[in-house]
């Protein structure tokens, strides 16, 4: 679970945007790998988890969840993090635009992109004996929290981020993903 900083954003052509009533946050889910066809509910689960990760009162924003494969994530990981290996999820926070809208209108704030690798997500779910849907939603929540500025570099940051993940996942009826893990 990693964060990468880039000004590159995913192509949203053909994506589906969800903006719930009373909320001005759009979530695009783009399926880039046919492997995700094995999980027909993946788009809806990703969208639901992304929306749940956003705090109440979050200013209008836009984010994209890309359902990719190991090869695509490995290429991104190598390019932006210097690590030539796939990983489960990458987060790419949007670079703030210094350009003001000429007529003073407010546009949704781009939050960034979250990219998931199907084979790695599946292998981890199987290894940890977790339902694929639960692991997918956990990783989307984790990625969105990175877009919002959360991190887990220090133990105290990790404790705060994991507590936030647990709360969000509980609201989605997903069990604590950290329960039963061994502490270092």
UniProtKB/TrEMBL annotation:
Q: Recorded GO terms, molecular function?
A: metalloendopeptidase activity; RNA endonuclease activity; zinc ion binding
Protein name from the UniProt record: Endoribonuclease YbeY
**Coiled-coil features, chain-numbered ranges:** none
Q: By its UniProt entry, which PANTHER family does this protein fall under?
A: ENDORIBONUCLEASE YBEY, CHLOROPLASTIC (PTHR46986)
E.C. number: 3.1.-.-
Gene behind the chain: ybeY
Please provide an example of a Pfam family that matches this protein in its UniProt record: YbeY
Cofactor note from UniProt? Binds 1 zinc ion.
Principal localisation: cytoplasm
A GO CC annotation given for this chain: cytoplasm
* Primary role: Single strand-specific metallo-endoribonuclease involved in late-stage 70S ribosome quality control and in maturation of the 3' terminus of the 16S rRNA.
Query: What does the organism's lineage look like at the top?
Result: Bacteria, Pseudomonadati, Pseudomonadota, Alphaproteobacteria, Hyphomicrobiales
Tell me which cofactor or cofactors this protein depends on.
Zn(2+)
Name the enzyme's class.
hydrolase
Give the region (Disordered) as residue ranges.
1-24
Which organism was this protein described from?
Rhodoplanes serenus
């Amino acid at each position: 679970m990693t964060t990468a900083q880039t000004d590159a954003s995913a192509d949203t052509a053909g994506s589906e945007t969800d903006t719930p009533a009373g909320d001005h946050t759009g979530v695009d889910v783009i399926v880039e790998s046919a492997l995700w066809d094995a999980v027909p509910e993946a788009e809806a689960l990703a969208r639901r988890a992304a929306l749940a990760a956003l705090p109440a009162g979050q200013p209008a924003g836009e984010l994209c969840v890309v359902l990719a494969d190991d090869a695509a994530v490995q290429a991104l990981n190598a390019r932006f993090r210097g690590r030539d290996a796939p990983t489960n999820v990458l987060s790419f926070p949007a670079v703030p635009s210094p350009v003001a809208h000429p007529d003073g209108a407010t546009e949704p704030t781009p939050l960034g992109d979250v990219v998931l690798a199907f084979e790695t997500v599946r292998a981890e779910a199987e290894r940890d004996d977790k339902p694929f849907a639960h692991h997918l939603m956990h990783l989307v929540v984790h990625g969105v929290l990175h877009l919002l500025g959360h991190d887990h570099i220090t133990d105290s940051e990790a404790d705060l981020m994991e507590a936030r993940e647990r709360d969000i996942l509980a609201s989605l009826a997903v069990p604590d993903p950290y329960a039963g893990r061994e502490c270092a």
